[in-house]
Amino acid sequence: MLLLNALIFLRGDYRASYYELCLRILSDLREAEELLSHTRRSPRGRLRVSAPTALATNFLIPALPQFFRRFPEIMLDLSSSDRPVDLIEDGFDCAIRGGELADSSLTAGRIATVHFATCAAPEYLAQYGTPQHPSDLERHVCVNFISSKTGKYYEWDFTKDGTVLRVPMTAAIAVSDMNAYTEAALAGLGCAQLTDFSARAHLKSGRLVRVLHDWVIPPVPVHVVYPLNRHLSAKVGVFTEWLAEIGATGVAAD
């Protein structure tokens, strides 16, 4: 009630600052409560985590039974989205993010490296042929991915023996969700650059075929991030350490 009354009487600009301060205070109170139980052998309580859809679905969730066996008193609230979130405003303890980080207000720990494979459905290759060189893709159709940060299409880069190629692509469809991206490739809508862990089962089953084996797609680092000035709670600490463990084996070793 006190917070509500204060917000009513404050001017707009002060109201926003006051609200942000209150959010930080509430966050500090939660961390203080966590510190009281820091000496426990097993951290406990609710842990709120944000992760990209593909990482949540193919990397994190399959490994969670191991995490809960080790830390049975932690309850996880997992939000999977390819859109960036504000950790403090949205109330997250930490987030998993792929790519290079630009936000200097966050503390980051690298947990893995994601590698990619250029793939297509057998039906697509039967119709358009199998590309032998990245330049062949100019005569092919691709599935494009829309960056949630920039709203632009991701560019297709390849490297081999020090040579870097950026290939312009014709897209039949562009999507902004990694699961939809994989499904579009499976439907034969075009070539796609899929993460190894998204493509692995489909390559094994034959629903996708890998092409351009000799050309490497630049890998992407994966980090766990949390606010710069926030004390690292026991829950976040053990979760970060566990992510690094599975990242070394479950995604790709650095």
UniProtKB/TrEMBL annotation:
One Pfam family recorded for the sequence: LysR_substrate
Record InterPro entries: LysR-type_TF_proteobact-type, LysR_subst-bd
Database matches in SUPFAM superfamilies: Periplasmic binding protein-like II
PANTHER family: HTH-TYPE TRANSCRIPTIONAL REGULATOR, LYSR FAMILY TRANSCRIPTIONAL REGULATOR
GO biological process: DNA-templated transcription
Family according to the record: Belongs to the LysR transcriptional regulatory family.
Limits of the LysR substrate-binding domain: 41-245
Domain of life: Bacteria
MF GO annotations: DNA-binding transcription factor activity; sequence-specific DNA binding
Keyword Transcription regulation assigned: yes
Protein name as annotated: LysR family transcriptional regulator
This protein's UniProt keywords: DNA-binding, Transcription, Transcription regulation
